[in-house]
Amino acid sequence: MIVSNNGTERTSSAGLAWRGRVELHYMTTCNSTENAFVESLNGQMRDELLDEMLFISIAHARARIAAWADDHNNQRPHSSLG
């Protein structure tokens, strides 16, 4: 699933190319809490994974993203949890 606000991601040619291959979810308008959460996660994912990796197929992208998500959610310590 790709989560996006109603910005340029919604109409970019790269974003439109993914339509039909993955589920697209658009955040509700003016929901700053939801937007802050998603923007923080997107920033971390972009810096730690997407800017560093060249995906050669959808299967490769899914495997690398799943590995990153597992590390992000289960392996690394989160400051909010002490």
Question: Could you write a compact summary of the structure shown?
Answer:
This protein is mainly α and 82 residues long. The protein has helices spanning 13-18, 32-50, 58-75, and strands spanning 2-4, 24-26.
Primary descriptors:
52% helix, 82 residues, two-stranded parallel ribbon, single chain, mainly alpha, globular, 7% strand
Describe the protein.
- There is one protein chain.
- Strand 1, helix 1 (13-18) and strand 2 (24-26) form a beta-alpha-beta unit.
- The termini are far apart.
- The radius of gyration is 14 Å and the shape is globular.
- It has a two-stranded parallel sheet with strand order 1-2.
- It is built from three helices and two strands, in the order βαβαα.
- It is mainly α and 82 residues long.
- It folds into two domains: 1-35, no CATH class; 44-82, no CATH class.
Number of domains: 2
Taking the alpha carbons of the first and last residues, their distance comes to 29 Å
Describe the sheet with the most strands: 2 strands, parallel
Q: Please, how many helices?
A: 3
Protein structure class: mainly alpha
Shape: globular
